[in-house]
Amino acid sequence: MITKAQSKRYAPQPSLDKKPKLSAMERGMLRWSTAERGDKVLDVHVGTGLMLEYLNRNMECEICGMSEDMETVRAARSRLRNADIVYGSREDIPWREGTFDSVYVKQMMVPISRQSISEALRVLKPGGQMLVGIRTLPTPLRQMAELFHTEAEDEPLKAQTRETTLLMMKELGCTQITWQPTDLLNGLCIGWKQIPPDAEEA
Predict the structure, then answer these.
(1) Mean pLDDT (whole number) for 8-14
(2) Which of 42, 58, 85, 171 lies at a C-alpha separation of 20 to 30 Å from 152?
(3) What gap in Å lies between CA 52 and CA 176, rounded to an integer?
(4) Are the beta carbons of 59 and 87 closer than 8 angstroms?
């Protein structure tokens, strides 16, 4: 029998030297982002806040973020003192239409819905860039995984494919849509919000 005191030797202890790092998805977003100095940007799932911190420090962007988890919001606010970080749903983004030059949407525990992409486009300025980061699997691995799921469980797998996400972006009005892998399990769907014809003529 292991006593309470003895069990402490086996419990993992967090390292004081361990610092949060950018994920592969976030590094890919920074690589492919076209954000320029002074742009206003939104991270729809702010996470650790490291990506916004980079954009603020290196590009002097005006940074905003949101999360559906209040603890994440508090942590990001403590890291990003000069940012507007709010609690809210990515399917109901609490900013006005055409507010941001760039919007970053990252898939976390659940697939990114059509409504999430629609909301991201709504708050994006015409001509602005949207980057949607999704978790994905190479086709052979995804097909193998689908063999072990019931029909009821298959839909989340299908919703995470790049083809589905790219199609949603196209149907919602994105232009110049491309796919860029960031690593084996993540990739980016990149698109721009259309500029109205009357604005182009002006």
Answers:
(1) 43
(2) 171
(3) 25
(4) no
CB 107 within 8 A of CB 90: no
Q: Can you say whether the dihedral through the CA atoms of 35, 91, 64, 99 is positive or negative? A: positive
Alpha-carbon dihedral 50, 78, 41, 129, rounded to 10 degrees: 40
Q: List CB contacts of 81: < 8 A, sequence separation 6 or more.
A: none
Buried-exposed string 12-38: b where 16+ CB fall within 10 A, e elsewhere: eeeeeeeeeebbbbbbbbbeebebeee
Give alpha helix (H) positions in the chain.
4-7, 24-32, 50-59, 70-79, 114-122, 139-146, 151-159, 162-171, 197-201
| 125 vs 81: which has the higher pLDDT | 125
Find where tokens 């559906």 sit: 68
Q: Any idea which residue has 């409504």 for tokens?
A: 115
Say if CB 11 and CB 74 are below 8 A apart.
no
Q: Do the bridges between strand 174-181 and strand 186-193 make them parallel or antiparallel, or are there none, so unpaired?
A: antiparallel
Domains belonging to the chain, first-starting first, are 21-196 (3.40.50.150)
31: confidence class by pLDDT, cuts 50, 70, 90: very high
Q: How many angstroms separate the CA atoms of 49 and 5, rounded?
A: 37
